[in-house]
Design brief:
51% of the residues lie in helices and 11% in strands. Bound molecules: protoporphyrin IX containing FE. Protoporphyrin IX containing FE binds next to helix 7, helix 15, helix 16 and helix 20.
Length: 420
């Protein structure tokens, strides 16, 4: 089958060629704009694809689930993989100390502490503040009429929510987004020297800031039921000597991770969701007319344009996956964006359907590392998108949205809009 190139309307690569030529280290502008034809080609022709650097790229739903669920064989520990990429640098120390890039027991200890502060009760208690925040942003947009969907809305929500979660004083939140973008940007498959330098500087500045915040919180602890930082500082009180405690390094880096994990991903859920709705006017109308479908609509936005497109694992032993033998020590990229459009799991997967059920997408991963903040992300997405639509049902994009030029985190840097 030949594919149409959007740029020149001409026939370009066959799906077979797309799959054959795919290299995560040489992504094209067409891929950044629309990776789904490539994902589909890979799923159909080479679902367990060996890349030129010796790593593998997985695109089938079932293969991702196998890798996610089998944590002994598919390790999340990134020390081996990141040593050549980052050397002895702040980025290396940060990423290899974060819970997401560790296996048990380091992973389990930190996860237990974090999950305790993200209980359904704690999240339900955040709803009132969240509604007030979203309404304040919508009031400001109403006055402006022409606005920036990402800067004025999508990105302004998670920074406040995560800031509240760690109780970062409001006036100290401004640098958080740029630090987060710089640190996560350094996780792209290929990074330039300036991205590496920016990532390292962001870690150093972030650590410097957190040290003072932790010092202040030690002096004046918050309520550990709702303040994650106090919870991480105090550790677990299991009634015995030596209950779970984090070292200073673990504490600081996992706070940075938490602040980052909820930022760009949730910004992209809200931004991608509203851009996708404007590209599918009949689904947009359906959602406006049936606001009670917001929950399934958010799930469909998560599936259709997943904010986090890739996960990574390394094999700890020789293993067969999807008919291919992988040696021990092989890096694998789990392509969430491709699995979420796998026809073996989703009926008519290229269709954007706001009432799709069932919808067992992998936008939050699955298994032991499944997103610890997914209930919060869902709440943020539902409140932000439903209140935005209720207020500005006729919103329109003005000009072309600008993509961030990232493959791992899919979203927009800027989306000029009018309230219509
Ligand atoms: C739409 C928004 C979000 C998306 C798409 C998303 C996606 C993900 C994914 C795919 C993972 C699994 C990584 C892996 O297995 O390799 C993950 C892990 C994680 N996420 Fe999220 N996330 C979102 C929002 C949040 C928020 C709001 C928070 C915090 C409040 C958060 C905190 C975490 C944490 C702590 C982990 C690590 C869990 C572990 O390793 O056990 N995320 N997220």
């Amino acid at each position: 089958m030949a594919l149409c190139n959007r740029e020149n309307g001409g026939m370009t690569a066959t799906t077979r060629e797309l799959a054959d030529n795919f290299d995560l280290e040489k992504l094209t502008p067409e891929f950044y704009a629309d990776p789904y034809p490539t994902y589909r080609a890979l799923r159909e022709h080479e679902p367990v694809k060996r890349l030129p650097n010796g790593s593998y790229f997985l695109t089938r739903y079932d293969d991702l689930v196998t890798a996610y669920k089998n944590t002994k064989v598919f390790s999340s520990d990134k020390k081996k993989e990141f040593a050549p990429k980052y050397g002895a640098s702040p980025l290396f120390e940060h990423h290899t100390t974060s819970l997401v890039f560790n296996d048990p027991p380091a992973h389990t200890r930190v996860r237990r502490l974090i999950m305790g502060a993200l209980s359904p009760r704690a999240i339900a208690a955040m709803e009132g503040d969240l509604v007030r925040l979203v309404d304040r942003l919508l009031d400001a947009i109403e006055t402006k009429r022409e606005f920036e969907l990402i800067g004025d809305f999508a990105a302004a929500i998670p920074v406040e929510v995560i800031g509240n979660l760690l109780d970062v004083p409001h006036e100290e939140r401004e640098p958080l987004r740029d630090w987060s973008l710089a640190i996560l940007g350094a996780l792209e498959p290929v990074i330039q020297p300036e991205q590496f330098a920016r990532g390292n500087k962001a870690i150093e500045d972030f650590l410097g800031y957190l040290e003072t915040l932790v010092e202040r919180r030690r002096a004046r602890p918050g309520n550990p039921e709702r303040d994650v930082l106090t919870r991480l500082i105090q550790g677990e009180d299991n009634g015995e000597e030596g209950g779970e405690r984090l070292s200073e390094t673990e504490l600081l880096h996992n706070c940075i991770f938490l602040l980052n994990a909820g930022h760009e991903t949730t910004t992209n859920l809200i931004g991608n969701g509203l851009v996708t709705l404007s590209a599918y006017p009949s689904e947009k109308r359906r959602l406006i007319e049936n606001p009670n479908t917001i929950k399934t609509a958010v799930e469909e936005m998560l599936r259709f344009e997943s904010s986090n497109q890739f996960g990574n694992r390394m094999t700890t032993q020789r293993v067969e996956l999807g008919g291919v033998m992988l040696d021990s020590g092989t890096s694998v990229t789990l392509c969430i964006g491709a699995a979420n459009r796998d026809p073996s799991q989703f009926n008519d997967p290229e269709k954007f359907d706001i009432t799709r059920t069932p919808n067992r997408h992998l936008a939050f991963g699955t298994g032991a590392h499944q997103c610890a903040g997914m209930a919060l992300a869902r709440l943020e997405g539902a409140i932000a998108i439903s209140r935005f639509l209720a207020r500005f049902p006729a919103y329109e994009l003005k000009g072309s949205p600008l993509r961030g030029g990232r493959a791992r985190f899919r979203g927009f840097l800027s989306v000029p809009c009018t309230v219509g």
